[in-house]
Amino acid sequence: TFGNRSVKIPLDSIVTIEETNYSKYYINNPVFNLHHSGVIKFYTGGKEAIRITDRDGLVYLIGTHKPKEFLSVVYHQKEILS
Predict the structure, then answer these.
(1) d(CA 10, CA 15)
(2) Residues 6+ apart with CB under 8 A from 62
(3) Cα separation of 36 and 1, whole Å?
(4) Residue 32 confidence (pLDDT)
(5) Span 23-41, average pLDDT
(6) Percent of the chain residues past pLDDT 90, beyond the cut
(7) Largest CA distance in the chain
(8) Alpha helices in the chain, H assignment, sequence order
(9) Parallel, antiparallel, or unpaired for β 59-64 and 39-43?
(10) How far apart are CA 13 and CA 1, in angstroms?
């Protein structure tokens, strides 16, 4: 189902964060806040993604063209909060 509510991922609740492929398909449709099979997906472009799992077991799959930069920003922000 599609939702229009905002999704906030508290940095202190992140258990794992990893770089992965968004999907096995060559072409993907843009989606925002798509809840499917226990995963909350966000995709605008690119073949790569970041998979974030929080304390509650929710999985967020965020498609990105620059996964390494995304990871470094999240790690940097987590360090600031610690």
Answers:
(1) 11
(2) 41, 42, 43, 49, 50, 51, 52, 70
(3) 7
(4) 59
(5) 64
(6) 15
(7) 39
(8) 67-81
(9) parallel
(10) 24
- 71 is written with which tokens? 């990871």
Give the C-alpha separation, 33 to 61, whole Å. Answer: 10
Query: What is the distance between the alpha carbons of residues 36 and 10, in angstroms, rounded to a whole number?
Result: 21
Q: Residue 43 is which amino acid?
A: Y
Q: Nearest-CA neighbor of 45 among 19, 18, 67, 75? A: 67
Identify the helix (H) or strand (E) that includes residue 42: strand 39-43
Indicate the pairing of strand 39-43 with strand 14-21.
unpaired
The 3-state DSSP class for residue 76 equals helix
For residue 78, the one-letter residue type is K
The token pair that represents 35 in the structure block: 């809840």
Q: Average the pLDDT over 54-77 and give the result.
A: 88
